[in-house]
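Board notes (copied after class):
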Amino acid sequence: MPVKLSEEEFDRIVAHAVDRIPSEIRQHLDNIVITVKKRPSRQMMREMGMHPDDYPLGLFQGVPLIERSATIPPLYPDMIYLFQEPLEEICDTREELEEEIEVTVVHEVAHYIGMTEERLAELGYG
């Protein structure tokens, strides 16, 4: 049975999951806004090239560090979206949900900082 939480409970789990992320990755969250949405919008789904029946768990929107210009700053803040309902649907317990949120945030931050899949695996997120 999937986990179903209130928005407030889900936000608390997100905060706890973020606290558990290794400092090597967490230090890059200072300039990123993490926000929760029930599901991705149609526009997000189109931009990701995803089928309407496939829902991602998270999404990084912004300019990855490796693509940034020293002279032209980004126009918008970098964002990590977590999608509550898809995350809840794949988890049977709060503990599992917290773990999946942590993994999702780490993977989205990895997109931002250009971390390799190999390094993610070394940190236990592979």
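Comment from the instructor: The chain has one domain: 7-122. The first strand starts at residue 32 and ends at 37.
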